[in-house]
Amino acid sequence: MIYDVPLEGELVRLRPMREHDVPLLFGWYSDPDVRHWSYFTEDPPGLATLDAHRERFEMIRDDPAQLLWCIESMDGRPLGDIALQDIQPLQKRADLAVSIGEKSYWGRGYGSDAIRLALRFAFEELDCRRVTLVVDRDNTRAIRCYEKAGFLEEGVLREHRLRYGEPVDMIAMAVLRDGAPRGASRKNGRPRAPGRIPRRR
Question: What distance in Å separates the CA atoms of residue 82 and residue 95, rounded to the nearest whole number?
Fold first, then answer.
């Protein structure tokens, strides 16, 4: 599903991910340092292609239970992607996934700002009460970022995924709407966007 109205924060803008952005995704996840923290480490050669990334994008675009944005700096440079996945309106929850593909922007607050915008959208526009994620146990930089956004650890998923064929523990984290920090919950304002109703394409 694509949300047509950009969301603006202090450092980044979340705009709709389009098909012409697929080469960006392919380039980011072809970088070993970026791929290291993603499920793409286990892709066979046939899936590590531009066409495979295009097919994945089309599946996400057409899936009403997923929302995908491109993270841009305020001067328009694409930095990465962020998604709300497995959106469950009846249960009022969703999963979060985020990656900053431009490594020169790691550790500079861009991911945190993008997460705040996505959480605010989840809590206000989608009326979620809970947003969850899983993260590699040794990804300390990402864990700090998630904690800053209000996520709390809920448990360890032992050997939850493979990374280059080796099992990796992951941490399950979640943030509740009532426990979200300032800027991520409906009690503290709305996203700076000209419209509110998600439109599907």
Answer: 11
Domains, the chain:
7-188 (3.40.630.30)
Count helices and strands (H / E) in the chain: 5, 8
Q: How far is CA 179 from CA 55, 119, 120, 152, 166, in A?
A: 37, 12, 12, 10, 35
- pLDDT, residue 46, reads 84
How far apart are alpha carbons 153 and 147 in whole angstroms?
A: 8
Q: Both tokens of residue 34?
A: 């970026």
* CB atoms inside a 10 Å sphere around CB 192: 13
In one-letter notation, the amino acid at residue 13 is: R
User: Residue 175 CA to chain centroid, in angstroms?
Assistant: 14
Token pair belonging to 48? 């590590």
Q: Which one, of 182, 61, 199, 198, lies nearest residue 127 by Cα?
A: 198
Q: What's the confidence (pLDDT) of residue 33?
A: 96
Classify residue 116 by burial, with Cβ atoms within 10 Å: 0-12, 13-18, 19+.
Answer: buried
3-state secondary structure of 179: helix
Predicted pLDDT of residue 183: 62
Query: Which pair of structure tokens corresponds to residue 44?
Result: 């066979």
pLDDT classification of 195: cutoffs 50, 70, 90: very low
CA angle 41, 43, 45 (to 5 degrees): 120
Structure tokens at 158: 């032992």
- Reduced to 3 states (helix: H, G, I; strand: E, B; else coil), residue 90 is coil
